[in-house]
Each structure stands twice: as structure tokens, then as C-alpha cells.
């Protein structure tokens, strides 16, 4: 029997989406676990602007049903001034019913982000994403220093979650350490969910 781990992200230029795919690979290294990749749609200041029902590229848009059907959540966003991007926050703001019912309580969660610069707010962004998940009663997992790449990386990677430094022009490829740590995070999340036996 396969159990889905929701890998949810917002990505403007594709870097966070790439990181999501490495997290998903790590999830699927755990027997019986499957990654369910989903993205949130962009939001616009003009609220009448409507998005197509399915994105032109990348993963399908997330629904609130995805939250309840999955045994764990990996959530990613580029940084916006040390905070998560508005589209992801907008989606989380619609999850009041899941909060009231405890749909996510007791499920493990992990976080990932991408910034343009080394000190562009990676850890603050990861922590900002953790706050609403703590309100939902989720169990937040990071990357332990037992992962050798965490002590060796000179690019992305933090104990709070996986990360990528895209560069001021967004032309940095995901480094070997960033890839390794994203996969390790996905694998750890899926393994904890499997051992918890979290019901979907």
C-alpha cells in the first residue's frame, strides 16, 4: 500500500520547483511512500484576475483535499523579504476548516526554500513557513547534522530545511550539496511518516 507525501510549493522562476523534485525523489526512496507534487497558483493585486483551472506547466494546483489525503507535507517557497511568498500564504489562509478539524495534527512536515543570495533570508523564510504548520499541530522536521553535507555546504542547506542559492540573476544550478540535502529531507520526512503510521 502506497502512502502519499504532499510536496507543495510556489515557484516563480523554477528554482523552488526544481528543489521540490529533489525532495520528492527522497520521499520515493522510502518503500511504500509516494510523492504527490502540487503547486499553488500565483495571486494578483487585481482580484478579478483568474488563473486557468490547470497550470500551463509543472505540477497540478493543490486542493485542500490533498492536505487531508496525505500522510506528510513538504512545503516550499522562494523568499520574499525573509518570508514565504504571498501565494503560499494565501493558500494557507484558506485552511481554517482543516485547522478546526485537526486534519493535519500529528502529521510530520518539512520545509524548503530558494533565495537569490546567500544571506537572502533562507532561515527566516523556513521559520515563517513553520509557524502556520505549528498552529495546525504538525510535527516539524529539519535536517540533522548527521547529514555530512550540512557541515560541508558552501551553497544552500540549513538545519531548518533544504535550500538553494539561485544567484542574483537566477543562473546558479542546484549544487550537489543542495541536491543531496533536499533528497535527505524528503527521505527523512517519508521515513518518519512511515514509522508513525500516520493515517491519511
Automatic annotation (TrEMBL):
Residues 5-190 form the Flavodoxin-like domain. Its cofactor is FMN. One of its GO terms (molecular function) is NAD(P)H dehydrogenase (quinone) activity. The keyword Mitochondrion does not apply. It comes from the Bacteria. Its EC number is 1.6.5.2. Pfam families: FMN_red. NCBIfam families: flav_wrbA, PRK03767.1. Keywords: Flavoprotein, FMN, Oxidoreductase. It comes from Luteibacter jiangsuensis. This is NAD(P)H:quinone oxidoreductase. PANTHER family: FLAVODOXIN-RELATED PROTEIN WRBA-RELATED (PTHR30546), FLAVOPROTEIN-LIKE PROTEIN YCP4-RELATED (PTHR30546:SF23). Belongs to the WrbA family.
Amino acid at each position: 500500500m502506497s502512502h502519499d507525501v504532499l510536496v507543495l510549493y510556489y515557484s516563480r522562476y523554477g528554482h523552488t520547483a526544481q528543489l521540490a523534485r529533489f525532495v520528492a525523489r527522497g520521499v520515493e526512496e522510502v518503500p511504500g511512500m509516494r510523492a504527490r507534487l502540487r503547486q499553488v497558483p500565483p495571486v494578483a493585486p487585481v482580484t478579478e484576475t483568474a488563473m486557468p483551472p490547470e497550470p500551463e506547466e509543472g505540477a497540478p494546483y493543490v486542493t485542500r483535499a490533498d492536505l487531508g489525503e496525505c500522510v506528510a507535507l513538504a512545503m516550499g517557497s522562494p523568499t520574499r523579504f525573509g518570508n514565504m511568498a504571498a501565494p503560499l500564504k494565501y493558500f494557507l489562509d484558506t485552511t481554517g476548516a482543516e485547522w478546526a478539524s485537526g486534519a493535519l495534527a500529528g502529521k510530520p512536515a518539512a520545509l524548503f526554500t530558494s533565495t537569490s543570495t546567500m544571506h537572502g533570508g533562507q532561515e527566516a523564510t523556513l521559520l515563517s513557513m513553520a509557524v502556520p504548520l505549528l498552529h495546525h499541530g504538525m510535527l516539524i522536521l529539519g535536517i540533522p547534522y548527521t547529514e555530512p553535507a550540512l557541515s560541508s555546504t558552501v551553497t544552500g542547506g540549513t538545519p531548518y530545511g533544504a535550500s538553494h542559492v539561485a544567484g542574483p540573476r537566477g543562473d546558479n544550478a542546484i549544487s550537489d550539496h543542495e541536491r543531496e540535502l533536499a533528497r535527505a529531507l524528503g527521505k527523512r520526512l517519508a521515513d518518519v511518516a512511515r514509522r508513525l503510521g500516520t493515517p491519511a
